[in-house]
Structure prediction request, 692 residues.
Amino acid sequence: MICYLFSAPTYFIFSSGVPTLLYYAYIPTTIVVLLVGFYVFWNGRHSLLNQLLLAISLYFSVWTISTLIEWTNIHSDLILFLWSFYNLILGLIAISCIYFIYVFLDKKDVAIGLKAIFLALLSPILLLSSTSLNLSGFDITTCDAFKFEWFPFTLYCTLLGVLAMVWIFVLLVRRYHTAAFDLRKQIILMGTGIELFLFIFFIWTSFTYYLSEIGVLPDSSLEMYGMFGMVIFIIYISILIVRFKTFNVKLIATQALVWALVILVGSEFFFAQTKMVEILIAITLIVSAWLGLTIIRSVKKEIEQREQLAKLNIDLENLLKQRESLTHLITHKVKGAFTRIKVLFAGILDGTFGEISPEIKKRAEQGMEFGNGGLETVDLVLNVANMQNGTIKFEMKPVNFKELVEKTIAEKKISAEAKGLKLETEIKDGVFDMMGDAIWLKEVVNNLVENALHYTKEGKIVVGLEDGNGKIKLSVKDTGIGITDEDKKNLFTEGGRGRDSVKVNVDSTGYGLYTVKLVVEAHKGRLWSESEGPGKGSQFYVELPAGEKV
Amino acid sequence: METKYTHFHDHFFFYILVLVIIIVSIVSYCRFFVSRDYVVGYEGTCDPATGKCFMSCDDDACTKPDYYSEMQKYEPDLYRECGKDITDCEAASVCLPSDRKCSIIYCDKKTNDNDNTCQIPVGEPSDTQSDNQINPINNTSI
Prediction:
């Protein structure tokens, strides 16, 4: 039958007898939704999340197109056929949204049990949608079937929407508390988008229809604004795409997406029939273009920074690999060469190669010394590399730090006296027991004293030790070349040396103080230096946590 | 976020859903396009001189009132009697013995819940126009 009071549409969906708002609300929304749905799907066809977004977009589009046809057509059989799917599509959208959020949060498919629940919730609609319990007739005077809908059936479908809202809200809130910071932001965006969509689509649509039925509203045209719920959802999806790459869509796709949205808004001018609508579209167009530009700019900048950072990361990884390779080379080649040289000179000195003259003996002793120095340098570099890659494990045992300091000072006294320097100690009374690796802690004291000896031409070196507030404080003060403010920045860095350090100490490697830093930090202590400036001496301090009594 | 389907059983519910939707579509198509198994509601002609008609007006002054009754007929019967368009079809405004489902609702205060008012026939013992009552000529055979 045909609705005898209405005129037939042109091109299937265009009719002068329907509100202009209908086209404004339905056509651009449907195109945008399909565009985003397919775009996201195209950029990750194997991703379940993308597939679900496409499914929601398709359900929604089928719903809007069907509704548009129902509004404009006059054939009862066609309208009723499409109308019979109305509640089914609502149910599918509600369930798909819940499914979508599960996959979004868990990054995996849901369990079979949950799928069975989804199907069970949909089953009443699936079973009844083609029966007279869904639709029993059609009014050809008003050209609709509202009077012939079974209220409990319609209510069930609306309640599914409400259930989806509550379900998703509970899911998101529960997951929000345990999520990382970045995911929390995504949860807020996704949650706001999908909840607004469900609210406007299900609640708003039903509520405005109800108000028009009881006479509060003159007609149900406000119901059409329910379509904008989907636009809101799509906006949030777009933000997720561009901000977090949730759907793995790249920048070019984002630009295309934003501009497509702007073009679509602009295309609404074709539907404008009044000045008011034209103004409304113009405002929307300007706002969309401005927002689109802003988003593209900020995203472009952010993505560039991310890519730059990623490139630097790769460079750094390559450098680390190169250094590892170099370390390997030092271990096997350089250290081996030094050892062989040392063995050679030792052989010369112990007479393995026969009697030697005093001149050769002197040269052999110098060679032996260079060999030892070379080995020490290689060991220093190797130690740093091993500490960084975690090869060296500190054996934390009870240690008396005072004994360790005294022992080191005793060993260094001869070297100090040989340079004409005084090596003094200022050890206050106290308890110096702590947990630590005795060998490496001794290396700390040794390195600091050695450092002071290298950079002090005359005067004295004072090694102090005191305790307090659960800390053991070691100080090494010298009357040496001092430290400039510029040098302080590089002092404890890998290979970091003072500007004039090589002038004073030609063997400076820049690894001694860095080793000290790594060991101190491994013992949860801290290290710092003070100096009043060049030529005014320097003070190095180490603070370590006091611990178990030895 | 690459969550991929890998096994057939992951598709199981999806296949069931698609299958049921296809079945529902076919059944709905047959119901609405082939067997036309539904009732059609419309405004039947009504003479205010003989029946209690619903009355609607196009303007506030109600210079040219429109009188009608609320009809419901089974679509195949109506289609047989009038074709696709019921305009100028007299059979549409009456219930015929061959109609399987047919009802005519005349103006009644209980059913008249919109702005329409009832027009009482001349000569009827009516006090006021609000004296609405149902006057069903209902040879419905449902």
